[in-house]
């Protein structure tokens, strides 16, 4: 392990590097570390909820309108964010119980497509090319990044926006390059420099987004005069 990685590990798990052999003392440090991390993510989720709650609800209504019009959701990201994108797509497609399944796809799931595009064209197009092939005006594009600087997400959002898709971005830190884009309709930034806390908060954001989207669809079905299909063209572009 490099000195840099060792330092990072020690900052995350100081009780492993304390040199103590007292089990009770070590367990107390483990407890304190766990409590501190839990408090940190709780506060971060609270901050995001207070700041972005209304926009998440509005985004969910717009997503519901797209689904009601026959749209589909495409989620994408790199590394750990690719795993989160797959989980997001699964949440919409197979929520379990009596919840309504909605058409959703993870664009990092097909290794043949990803490796072919990455090898033959370039990694920067692995998501944009798929959106160009499958994306329609009523669809939804959701991109996840911790830094907000992923070049292939920037390309994907530009492609999705050109096709009139509803575009949703989840980022950390200060939003990075994603915060500079006009092609993202709804950008939700988790104000943290910890990749762990960012991804935990992003999980909460898309879980709430799913719940509110399903609620909006259910409410629309109960009130047929309030047809969400008529509101697809009313999406407020590039909200922050």
Task: Give the topology, please.
Layout: H1 3-12, H2 23-68, E1 73-77, H3 80-93, E2 104-106, H4 111-120, H5 128-134, E3 140-144, H6 151-162, E4 166-172, E5 186-190, H7 195-222
Structure description:
The chain has helices at residues 3-12, 23-68, 80-93, 111-120, 128-134, 151-162, 195-222, and strands at residues 73-77, 104-106, 140-144, 166-172, 186-190. The mean pLDDT is 89. Strands 2-1-3-4-5 form a five-stranded parallel sheet, with helices on both faces. The protein has 240 residues and is an alpha/beta fold.
Content of β-strand: 5-15%
Helix content: 40-55%
How many structural domains can be distinguished in the coordinates? 1
Elements, N to C (H/E): HHEHEHHEHEEH
List segments where confidence is low: pLDDT < 50 over at least 5 consecutive residues. Answer: none
Overall pLDDT? 89
Strand order of the largest sheet: 2-1-3-4-5
* Secondary structure category: alpha/beta
**Which value, in Å, is the CA radius of gyration?**
20 Å
